[in-house]
Each structure stands twice: as C-alpha cells, then as structure tokens.
Write a structure and sequence with these properties.
It is a single chain. By secondary structure, the protein is of the alpha+beta class. It has one domain: Alpha-Beta Plaits (2-Layer Sandwich). Helix content is about 45%, strand content about 30%. It contains 3 helices and 5 strands. Strands 1, 2, 3, 4 and 5 form a 5-stranded antiparallel sheet that branches. A hairpin with a 5-residue loop joins β3 and β4. The chain starts with a helix and ends in a 5-residue tail after the last strand. InterPro entries: RraB, RraB-like_sf, RraB_dom. Keywords: Cytoplasm. Belongs to the RraB family. This is Regulator of ribonuclease activity B.
C-alpha cells in the first residue's frame, strides 16, 4: 500500500465515522494536519512552506514520547468541506512538504460539527 492509498483509506474512515455520528455534512470544518520531527530548523522550514501554501500554522511544541525521546510538532490548519477530494488535495500538498524537509506528516483530524 502506498502512502497515498494509506491516507485515502484513513481519510474515508474518519469522514465516514463523523457522518455516522451525525456530524453536519453541509459546513466547513477546521482540518488540522499534524507534522513532527527532531530538527527544529527543518520543522520551521516545513511550517513556512505550509504558511506559503495558505495554511494557518501553529507554534511548534515539544512532545515527550513514552520512550523518553522528545520530538517537535506543529499543525497546519485549513477550513475545508469534509470530503475526501478536498482533504486528499491537502494531504498530497503536505506530503511533498514533509518529504522536502525530512519531517513526518502524522495525519489529520477535525472536530464534530452540529
């Protein structure tokens, strides 16, 4: 399974779950795409490219993992309809940024909307 197939399958599942739970299909959602890495400079450059691609970018935060390692992470955020095509377009764009700077794209999430 390719990265794109993996993210497409995960995206379908997230959307399906939200709609099955009664989330509103007619509104825009705040989609938070998650990035992480060990190198602050690389993460900062990725965040700048996300900003240039018209995503809002959160400040980098430190996250302690269970194994004691500390990673840095940030979110690239965009308002979007909750549909597979729109979100996959974001993911394709963001995967290229992650690859360019050697950081991890860790998926996306959103919130239930009434």
């Amino acid at each position: 399974m390719t990265d794109q197939q993996h993210w497409q399958e995960e995206t379908r599942e997230i959307i399906r779950s939200l709609f099955e739970d009664g989330s509103n299909p007619e509104v825009n959602y705040t989609i938070e795409h998650h990035f992480s890495g060990l190198d602050f400079d690389r993460l900062e450059k990725a965040a700048l490219d996300c900003f240039k691609a018209e995503f809002e970018v959160s400040d980098a935060e430190e996250l302690a993992l269970e194994d004691g390692q500390t990673i840095l992470c940030f979110d690239a955020v965009k308002e979007s309809p909750l549909n597979e095509a729109a979100i996959m377009a974001h993911i394709e764009q963001l995967l290229k940024i992650a690859e360019k700077y050697g950081v991890e794209y860790d998926g996306w999430g959103t919130y239930f909307e009434e």
